[in-house]
Task: structure prediction
Amino acid sequence: MSAPAIEIDNLVVRFGRFTAVNELSLTVNEGELFGFLGPNGAGKTTTIKVLIGSLRPSSGNIRVAGFQIPAEFDSVKQQFGYVPDTENHIEEFTGRENLELFARLYDLPLSTVDESLALLELSEAADVVVSAYSKGMRRKLLIAREIMHRPKILYFDEPTANLDAHSTELVRELLRELASQGTTIFLTTHNMEEVEQICDRVAILCRGELVDCDTPTNFVTRHAVRIVKAQFEQEGNVIRESLDLDLDDQRERLAEIIRNEKCVRVHSQEFNFQDVFLKITGQAYT
Amino acid sequence: MIRSEMIKILLDREFRRLRKNPSALMLLGLLSAVALLMATSRPVSKASDQAGTNDASRVADVWLIYDQDSEWLAYLKANLPETPIVHPVRRSSVPIENGRLKLPLGHGAVEIFYEEERRTDQVSAFGKVTLNGKYPGKDPATLDPFWKWFWSTLTEYHTQGLRFEQSAEPLTNQSAEAPASLEDTSVADLVTNELIATMLLLIVMFFACCHLLVSFTAQDRERGTLAALVLSPAQTSEILLAKFIFHLLISLGGCLTIVAILKPIVLTQPVLWLVILLSSIGLMCVGTCIATLAKTQASAALLALCYMLGGTVLFYLSTKFTAFYFLKQLAFENYTFPLLFSTMKRPVSVFNAPGLGTMFLLVGIWIGVARSCFYRYGWR
Result:
């Protein structure tokens, strides 16, 4: 993780009077697996569209792999792959034909087609027309297409949407491997578990503004709450208490309960990224 | 810089997609079949065409009734046809009952009324001739064989210069009251094939270059395939060029088939191919703009239909209102039809083809507009 692969500086995107992205600034390093989170309509897809050159920004500077966007779009587009949230295959073609077309466009040997298909466990369905594919298979074919040319930067919009448990794990493993090989991965997702598991860094966007950006570990440290929930019996009644361990009197109270009462259950509250996300974005809304 | 290898790959993709959607070319097959049937069938007469009858329904005997002799009438009498049997008779010899001609059943008649006028500024008199055709049944086309003989013999008479110099007006203009379809029988047979061939070429060009391009491009856009291609190493200009070449090839192939079937003699005419090429490019540019501006494939198809109907309305209104007439001059399609039609009829030189230069200019403007539209909004 050294030179920045993506640099966004004061990005503003407006649609008429509506501001979809407001003064967004962030840097994604090379080989980083970067999670881009936000509630619906936060401006995640708009940001990705600007990054791939599909949407012109109202203002701001964007550099991808050292190239200015959108001015140097033709030079930069070979450096990245983009997996959109909706499939864009040629429906009449088979899976293999779809990949072969792009392999020829990228001037790749046709053997890479078979490799990519095998990597995503699609070899058996390679000669079936895409219109007969399931949603999960289409998704995997899309990923196979976009990683085929080994791009420096990969944009993923909901990488594991519509995938079963096995395929989800397969894709996550693939993302980790690609990142370890130096590919910068910029992904948006609503799956908080995924973010915690695979991302090196996470940015949270709300109403077009960057709310927070940190590593998942730091998010845990900063936002974890040290609360213990105790359940005990007292004079025939079941009583539940929530005790904050950061407060002296509540720590003493916990000790007293454990010492004097008949405890049924005592457990600490686990850190939950979803709760943090809701808290952060909720705060932003209020 | 345009890379031929990219164009080849993209063209291959277009053809493979077409091969998997053969129904897209159904209309071209249909038009070719129409042309083939036209070429292999014998032209039928209007009478049998309209009434579904055969030669037997034509009038075998026609009475040519006149009041006074004249030079041209004498010429007609001297050149009577074998069929139908024409009986030139003076009005006084024809039996009349209750003011109506009494002729044998199934016979037709043509009355000649000759009015002599004298102009004060001219030494000689000139005549106004009115022809009144009468036929059994309700089909005026039963007199067609008679009219065919009548007009050709009369034209022959005039071209021999017997009376032409003294005639103030051409005789054809004096036959205002003659039965309808005179022109149909004498001229229509000569122009029908050219006219239909021109119409078929226009349909082929519109279908291949506008309708099909709009449909395929809008589908690509809607599915996101176009965006995927643009994000690949292929340049936007290469994608657009590949599309243009693909649709142009379909258009040229369709036109070649139609012309080869209906009028192979004009295949060697450069003007024909130049007009087809320019019109096809113009229509592709229009199609690109439509596909670019429409959000979905359905709305794009609707826009293409509106364009066609709008063009038809404009051309009709241009015959009624001057504003539309001037507007029509700005449409490259305005020059397509007359140029194609005249090329079908006789050889036209590239340097003497009326409107070809204007067409070049208008198509050039359309290329600029389409390119700009596609670059700005085409895949976004």
